[in-house]
Queue: 2 jobs
Job 1
Amino acid sequence: MTAKVQTGQLSSFSNKTLAFDWKGLLRIGLIGGLMAVLVSIIGMVETFHGRDIVGGVITMGQTVLAGAIFVSSSIAASRNSSHSRLSQILGAVVSGLLATATLGILIWFSQLVNLRPIFVNISPSLIRILTFEKDLPGQLVPALGLLLAYGFVIGLFAGLLYVAPTKMRKAVTSGIIWVLVIGLLGELLRTLIVGKPIEESVSWILGTRNQKGVSVIGAAVIFSLVAAFSTLSQMFGGRLGSQVQARKAALPVNAQRGLNATLLLVIFLILWQLPQLFGIYLSDVANTVGLYILMGLGLNIVVGYAGLLDLGYVAFFALGAYTMAVATSTAVGAGRGLILFSLGLTFWEALPIAVGVACLAGIILGIPVLKMRGDYLAIVTLGFGEIIRILAFSDFLKPYIGGAQGIVKIAPIMVAGQNLTRPTELFHVVLIICAIVAFIAWRLRDSRVGRAWKAIREDEDVASAMGINLVTSKLLAFASGAAFSGFAGAIFATKLSSIIPGSFGLLVSINILALIIVGGMGSLPGVLVGALALVALPELLREFSEFRLLVFGAVLVGMMIYKPEGLLPEETRKLELHEPEPGELQP
Amino acid sequence: MAMLDVKDIHTYYGNIHALKGISLEVNEGEIVTLIGANGAGKTTTLRAISGLLKPREGSIKLNGEDLATYHAHELAFKGIAMVPEGRGVFSQLSVDENLQMGAYSRNDSAGINKDKERVFKLFPRLKERHKQPAGTLSGGEQQMLATGRALMAHPKLMLMDEPSMGLAPILVEGIFEIIKEINKEGTTILLVEQNALMALSIAHRGYVLQTGQIVLSDTAENLANNEMVQKSYLGVE
């Protein structure tokens, strides 16, 4: 049998010959190469090179570069999935070589022409990183050879991983991911243990104090532990997990509820103790995450439950914050940085007013947009958000709300005669409020009005034929979403003790929307995961903030392709987006 | 007195005169069918009765009470239930939740549970799949769900829009059997259909719609034997 190679399609194949879809392979390899070139010329590789993942061996810059090549090689291997294993591995290797060859062209070109006037990031130090510290131009040939060998190794690794048995693949992948994650957050973990007795005993994993990332031994240990655990859990975990599930399902409903409640209580108590471990900086990050969780829960009602796309959600956050500020600020008078008038209330007196104002604003925005859907609704709400922001900036309202300078001296939260100003103290308030709001959101979801919202999201006409009042249901969604956000705004104002209008930009609205999409539309645990992924992570990796939006965008695109239902979706949504296997869903 | 009394209604989509004076009656316990070609105004008539579209002229009365002042969602409380065209199930909600939505206008949980049992008895397939999202059901199952959802409201009058649309012939027969059974159990039905043959075989009376006007009305049997109906809608030469 001979193999016919048809260009443009998957070539036909036989077991004896190696067959490739050369055109597809070339394309994937080049895309991988272009990705590697892109992360290099925008400066990612060089900037990230300063950050060790595994001390002295692997830096984050190399990880990004290798990641680009690895991904393209894996895709190349999967494209050859109908072929023999050997051709899958070869496909991955070829793709890896192609990707590094593209990178090699960039290096070679940079020696011929000075590219820096156009791409300012193609610096000699970047080239040194890419050529493994060889001296150019003298050692150009060995450097390029080394680069190709690098591509070969990564391609080979990707190919071997692809053809490896599933269990092994999962074990190795999760091992690598954990090493990367712990390496990335190594510095952070170190701040948690500095000065504590435990520091000495784990220093062999995390390395010395001034090292970033994990040590080589640490990486090896983490990798083996995770890989072993993954293998074990794949062998026994599934059965154990389903046994636990079955045991739990066999309990009476009341006992199940009790179990869940106890579990939640334990989690709550653990969270309650966290500030002691966290210290001030991390507690402050946690508080910010908490505020985003509050807003996420609110927007989740509007967008996730009721399906009303609101892009001006930050407006309610701003209204809550400004109401709190105007109601409690003590910087009153005529002059710079002062406002003419303040109610002079305490935090607790002002809180219901702030929530009420936001709620009212929700209804006021809701009334004119009742008949609107989808894109039109999005544009109107976007405009509403901008109106509020511009009003906050305006000279017209400056005597009352401070204009661009904002409002200072906002009252702190007072509990039992004590002002809670430190982030570690504030954390408890944020935690309690998050717990209460999450409980409300959860009860709303399964309530009569929650079902009405979902029905409206699906089909307004049919919903009203079922007896659902569209007007009150929609207004209720807007109002409760706005109230949650106003709540968050009020705490935000008191947390910073001063506010400026710049904090209430469009990006906040988009961030909240993105976090509920990433977490899983309509899902409550999803809000938590989304807030951790989109608020906590960028906050902790602040040194790379210039690439934040790029990574953000790439992650969102990837999510929409591979996991459109979000990280922790609602069960039904997951089922709908991933058609179940026939028979899988039979009771 | 007729249960549903539609008198000379005119509706418009923008400037397009969709219904040009439709009058029809449905008596308690009947199956009445509205047949006609695409665009004749069948669905528009149903939308007008269910309050989703307000007629500019004419009146719609349910048991003598004018419905003009009621919103669509209030009519559910008056005992009108709708099985929408193209099935119109809430695809992201589970079968159970869809049925619960059908009972939205009620709060007698004992009666709701009884009706749920009844729906599951009529459509055992729905019971098998009660946790599944409605969007993953087959076309026939979705039609069953839409019908079951309407039954959950325990309606006096059920409006059905093209229950046979897009279903395999064998499923169509099953659905019509069930419509007949629902009617026997005491629900009055106004049935809009393109499949005139099937509709006339189970209905008591029928109306023929053409470009927004009623051109014929008679008992189902007479209509089925009418030469014009046979030629235009039953495909008999």
Job 2
Amino acid sequence: MSLSDFLSNATSKWLRDDGPDSDIVISSRVRIARNLTDRSFPMLASERDKQNLLDEVAAAVKQPDVQKLGRFELLKMGDLTDVEKQVLVEKHLISPALLEAQGGAVILREDEEISVMVNEEDHLRLQCLLPGYQLDGAYQIVNRLDDALEETLDFSFDETKGYLTACPTNVGTGMRASVMMHLPALVLTGQIGRILSAVTHVGLAVRGIYGEGTDALGNLFQISNQITLGQSEEEIIGNLHGVARQLVDHERGARQYLLRDGKEQIEDRVCRSFGILAYARQIDSKEAMQRLSDVRLGIDLGIIKGVSANILKELMVATQPGFLQKYYGHEMSPAMRDVKRASLMRERLRMNDGE
Amino acid sequence: MLCEQCGERPATVHFTEIVQGQKSEYHLCEACAREKGQAAYEAMIGAFSVNQLLSGLLHLDPTAPQRSDTPAPRCESCGLTFQQFAQVGRFGCPDCYQAFSRELGTLLKRVQSSDQHTGKIPRRRGGVIGARRELNRLRQEMHMRVVEERFEDAAQLRDRIRYLEQQIESQA
């Protein structure tokens, strides 16, 4: 199978498509936890309880209200190979914790924008993952699915504590909303530390993804809400929205500054990274992410032409161990992965040359 | 760079966490990251677990005195003891919230912004709860209109309050 066929078959819609502000915001995700009444959470549930829950959820998904939202498929973790499960984690459709969970399953919509984990920490974890900046859209989709499932399932809800969850850090709305942002210019101009520490003081958490220090690897940051009780879903998304908008504006400003005051340096940096990705024979994931970030910045600034801007998120996922193994068809050592990763990068860059 | 855990293999997993201004960095090899387990892997893909932090908070909580003559608090529905909850940071079933409400004390308020849910109410099962919340809102608004001496508006609100009260009673 050619690389382009492999990628288009193997990647989710959020990895292929663009969205609003996708020059900076890679993806938006909303996840809500729900539990059914009158039974133990998965941690204490027996095999049989978990099977019963799965049967009930499977029946609820077949109801017309849910079917209106799209075509869903149920995958039991026990029926999947290790590589298939790993790939689901790398596509951010399930959590690593679901791999460990006995009796775990995931319900996926065809386009993989919606996934529902069953028997993870909570009975149900509903997730919507969209490309670009679409937090409101992601919440609306999850909210509709929640209403549709609630037509036939009884969710644990307390008047003062809200939706009851296995971990008290999720109680209330049960909601985590997050945006993944690419902020290379804020990192290059040294503003990122100050800005991110301000973000953590308003009830939000920031994580560098595969990152190290303030030079987060690939310059990718995930911003999410910490609080689930005492704020409504709209307030939580509103807070996150306010902060994300500011980060987008600051990043755009910093990019303009780089073009104006350091054009030669930034061109050199971006083109060097392009050269390395195009010719390297082995590359570790850390360097690969940094080079990809540079190339993506070069594309956004108009320095590099003829390469799809999607290359960053696509390769960020496709060069993970599970994907590499799936594409090359065999298990490999970290050193072997570095060789294959470089080879996949070269192939992917050549793919765009013909466009 | 070598793995900071074993010091033998090259570090291939790198991640940084900033939570409430606290920054932690990790540089691990594949094997140690797997051993370190979920925490590292969750951070790699962006999920986040605060369970450990939570059980830390509970151990510091002096509101749960340990006395040998009284039985340890336990949830009747699922059998989980409070001690077990403090260790794993997770409840066993929805009834645990009620069973341990005394031991939990102010924990919810400390890990969250308040201990009162103001968000979504289930559409099908939450009808009465929604009506009660609406009722509270209308009563506050009515008082404000009275203070402002906008009595006609207040009277309209009073009628809606009566209607809602009747509805709630008929459903109860």
